Amino acid sequence: MTVTTAPPQSPTDVSLHESPRLTSGHLSPWVPWALLAASAAIGALLFAIVSIAEATTFNIAGWAVVSAILYLVLITVISSLVEGRRKGVDRLVTGVVTAAFAIAMVPLVSVAVTVVVNGVAGISADFFTMSMRNVVGEGGGALHAIVGTLLITLAAAIISIPIGLFTAIYLVEYGAGKRLARGITFLVDVMTGIPSIVAGLFAYALFALFFGPGIRMGFMGAVALSVLMIPVVVRSSEEMLRLVPNELREAAYALGVPKWLTISKVVLPTSIAGITTGVMLSISRVIGETAPLLLTAGVATSMNYNLFEGRMMTLPVMSYSQYMNQGIPAQAFIDRAWACALVLIVIVMLLNLVARLVAKLFSPKLGR
């Protein structure tokens, strides 16, 4: 009996039948970073030569643009040669999106750094414990403006949040396909684009009809801000309520739960995180408004805790008035203006943190 054996395979044959590695045809993770560093170095060298030749300062913006374009070209070409055209296009689009994000972050970071650097000079213990009563130069504080900002914003939130939330509930749960709902949606869209000064004029004209011209009070400012807040609350809450699956509503109806109880116990708790975010967006939208508060709440230098009597100062109005009406020494007024802007940003940041905490605590817990 003859036994045949397969001929021994040469190393060349083994390598031909060997399965390709997972890393073949892929760029190493360090390659994009190396290309980015090389692009930045080449761009810096070019602009350094130009600045030395023309005796000008180094153009940082031009360097960033040229480096980004050079990086996109290099990563696209090299990736297309090594990984294929599809992966090259993917890396190109990823680079463009990243560059767009960086461009969008530039003004945000610039504003934040500018406000912090200039606002720290005006921050002191007196700034948080004193008002501007009988202060004509250095000294004084913004306690009256901080209190006024919090009171007016709180009153505006109390007015606008229930109105906006109930309107959104009607549009989603009761008004589907109805002519009234379409009209409300149209009016809300129109109100979203109303300039803030128009809201201030509306509030001033409304109160002037009852109390006469020249009236100024904190509640007028709250009404003006609520006009700006309501459409934002309506649109954001409406979108969040629409994201709630209809299966949850149908399950509640199948168990005999009334519609109003389904909304309060099922729909609202499910969408509470998104609604809270929308409410905070509306508050952030109005807390820094200046023009409507100049017309309605006015300018004051003393403490005022009563929203329904007398003028009331707010942080944006104080920042504007301190910068536009500089006295002697002028630097003290400028420092107070920047400090008011910094405190206003910190308040908005704290409110957003509180909103995230509330959304996390009250959002429905998903289990298996």
Automatic annotation (TrEMBL):
It is found in: Cell membrane. PROSITE patterns: ABC_TM1. Residues 1-20 are annotated as: Disordered. Residues 146-355 form the ABC transmembrane type-1 domain. The chain crosses the membrane at residues 30-54, 60-82, 94-121, 141-172, 184-211, 217-234, 336-359. Residues 1-13 have a biased composition (Polar residues). It comes from the Bacteria. It is a multi-pass membrane protein. Part of the binding-protein-dependent transport system for phosphate; probably responsible for the translocation of the substrate across the membrane. This is Phosphate transport system permease protein PstA. It comes from Microbacterium salsuginis.
